[in-house]
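We emphasize that the prediction below concerns an isolated chain of 239 residues; any contacts that depend on oligomerization or on bound cofactors are therefore not represented. The input was used exactly as deposited, without trimming of termini.
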Amino acid sequence: MDVGQQIARIRIDAEALARAAEAGPLDTQVPTCPEWDVETLVRHIGSVHRWAATIVRERRTDRPRLSVEGPTGRTALLAWYRDGYEELTATFEAASEEAVFWYWGPAPNALAFWCRRQANETAVHRRDAEAARGPLSPLETPNALDALDEWLTLASLRSSATPGGGRIVRLAPTDGDRVWFVRLGDRVEVLEAQSASDCALTGTASDLFLWSMNRRGTDGIAVSGDSALVQVWADSMRF
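Result of the prediction step, given as a token string:
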């Protein structure tokens, strides 16, 4: 998925998040982020959009501090949020893939990293906003496959799941041609194709991604093998 496609994803999911947020009270709790209400969610993702835009626009080589901002008042906050994602996408469109600035995960270049990261972060938080209003909308299959691949790659850099004891979870999307094998232990490791796993989950790429991010349960997902690893994942694999 190229930079332009990721930018288009940001616009779609960022606006869908705004519509979900404005569809009800901002003090409604977000079930998928129990410590947040919708207002906190909007402030968080609006601040993240501005933070990422600053890194790219100013070509920051350090990691700037993220501060949660946003005006008071429903109308002003939602307008501020929309201004933020417009700023983000405009900044990405104006940037060069040759430019050098700080990023923290595998990617062909810094701009590609940030476009993908913000597309997938915005996609997750769109579903958080939707969770406060009703059911979650599924991700389109190509987007879900990209999001799942990125999440597992980043999890291997920063996550641990010691109770997993080195056991392997297999994630097999029914609408994709790739299967992921993830070892859960003192460190999380994405493995090359394996012949066996301790627990296997099979479902749509969207369902598997949202489950892997603790945004849904396993309803509609086929689970086989050591189902205790489902809880280990839920307790350990957080972003």
